[in-house]
């Protein structure tokens, strides 16, 4: 088998799904073809969800007010159903009952966030007996769930704090 000199290199741009093992699969494919992988850069990976509290929501809305343009009359009648910034949806999670800390924006790349249920506690019945309501035609079953919200790309998540 012919070999190349150590100074010979080629740059390949490839697209892979954002799944567990995608990088390992790509490296295995290069090795199977007889090549060697010396560097790997993730080129495009940005946030697709921005979670803000009510303070940051107000600041962001005030910054957009002067730039507001409507291409259709129906769009501006009752406000905006959602906001976007560079293809990322902006969601308000503040005020009474909100869990976002005051003066904070979280930039999340949901491609790298997973909800992982426990194998023995994924919506399993905790009581074999069903419970019946006396005053209505209904039955209740108590279910148990346990798991973790995990990320495999902490470098693709961000937080902005208004200090």
> What does the oligomeric state look like here?
single chain
Contiguous uncertain segments of 5+ residues: none
> Tell me about the biggest sheet?
5 strands, mixed
Distance between the termini: 61 Å
Strand arrangement in the largest pleated sheet = 2-3-1-4-9
The helix content, as a percent range, equals 10-25%
Give a brief description.
The protein is α+β, with helices and mostly antiparallel strands and 163 residues long. It has helices at 22-32, 54-65, and strands spanning 49-52, 83-85, 88-92, 104-108, 113-125, 131-132, 139-140, 143-151, 158-161.
Set out the fold topology:
Elements: H1 22-32, E1 49-52, H2 54-65, E2 83-85, E3 88-92, E4 104-108, E5 113-125, E6 131-132, E7 139-140, E8 143-151, E9 158-161
